Amino acid sequence: MAFIDAFRNRYQTEIDGIKAAGLFKEERYIHSPQSSDIEVEFPAGSKIKKCINICANNYLGLSSHPEVIAAAHAGLDSRGYGMSSVRFICGTQDIHRELENRLTEFLGTEDTLLFPSCMDANAGFFEACLNEQDVMIADRLVHASIVDGMRLCKAMQDTFKHSDMGHLEEKLQEHMDKRSRMIITDGVFSMDGDMAKLDEIVELAEKYDAMVFLDDSHASGFIGRTGRGTHEHCGVLGKIDVITTTLGKALGGASGGCVSGRRELVEMCRQRARPFLFSNSVAPVIVAGALKVMELITATTERRDKLEWNAKYWRGLLKDAGFDIKEGESPIVPVMLYDAKLAQDFARDLFDEGIYAVGFFFPVVAKGQARIRTQLSAAHEKHHLDVAIEAFKKVGEKHAVLGLGKKELLARAGA
Amino acid sequence: MDEITKLVRDYVIREYLEEGDDREITETTPLISGGIVDSFSMVSLKRFLEKKCNVQIPDACATPDAFDTVQGIVALVHRFQKAQPVTV
Ligand SMILES: Cc1ncc(COP(=O)(O)O)c(C=O)c1O
User: Fold this and answer.
1) Yes or no: is domain A66-299 CATH 1.10.606.20?
2) Is the CB of A215 under 6 A from ligand 1?
3) What is the pTM of this model?
4) Would residue B13 count as lying in a domain?
5) Less CB within 10 Å around the terminal CB: N or C of chain B?
């Protein structure tokens, strides 16, 4: 017991600072399965409220799909609750191998290794595969888990301006003295919903002998004609050296991630990636559920087609209403408000209207880029979106933001 | 503004500001703590300085604090420059 007052005060002061800066995060308690219609307790202790959820990564609406739940139940019965082991001691079941094979097939790669999460896959990959002789060149907007993974790796770190191919080429030229270059990018960028120019990236990679690393967490299962991901959308299937992705979003939404790609790189992870070696095996119940997910999404493209329709419809509704949105083709649709306080107030008012969406602001996005990030799901029916847009319009009118562009919005916010 | 200051400032603007970003970079604008330069890109900034200014900046001195302003970076360059002329 040495948690002396000085320690407690130090942390409390820091927490107070987070609050004072308006950056304090509060959880909202959901009393129902994840879905388009959810029941929310917020603030803690208040009456439960029915809401339309428009901020989940439940892109394919499979998080609470009856067939996935049934498969998970069956997996629980046939393979038990947990493995009580890391993979390489006594934690690998037949279904782990089966899921890895299904993912390899689906992503169009050579091999796949499951990780406890995609955060872990990203945290472990670089250190396992690169060292001082190599360089990592990352898009400046890659996910935080990639940033952490790069920090753990001894290879030289560099970045290029977001989706700026000229800048990337300069960086590749600058690092021709390294043994190998690895270009690192997200497929769909989670805050803006825009896509990496993977076709151009692959072209540059071929020109400068670089490997390509893709985090397709916000794309696997629904981007591309058959939902394989950003590489399918950009016509470079089979040309990406490493893909990391998550089972925690479109692919069932429970948890788990993977590294998928060139056989040797995956093998290096199996031998060396610390989050794979030193963390417990993905639970059988999740593997069984994910296997059903793979079956459902390869049998038909119905869900990704519906998601695409929903995203298009929602973008249209927002634009017609006079909101300033980030253009794109993904089901991530940011409604730009630019001002952090406005984004927070807007989200709170939406909640009062029964719409669950959250505001994002610095440091999650750049200063002066605050927004409400909306995300579509195949579990949304047209009526959900029709109800949601009425709420958006009402709140938009209250804050007098409809029909305004960036300059006017910033002026309105007094920035 | 001396030559090195101009060199560093121009580099920061070219390397870190997106097109259309009209933020002003002065000698005292906080670069890293202000979110303009991310800590990874410090590496390229350091390499650039070492090449252009003929200096070796020890890794231990290339801290985010030392790199936080144009002024600070220039001071660092002067500290480690062995009286060689700048080769621009
Ligand atoms: C781009 C990206 N990569 C990785 C992750 C982490 O995935 P997981 O939840 O499986 O750790 C996320 C999730 O937020 C993400 O958005």
Assistant:
1) no
2) yes
3) 0.93
4) yes
5) C
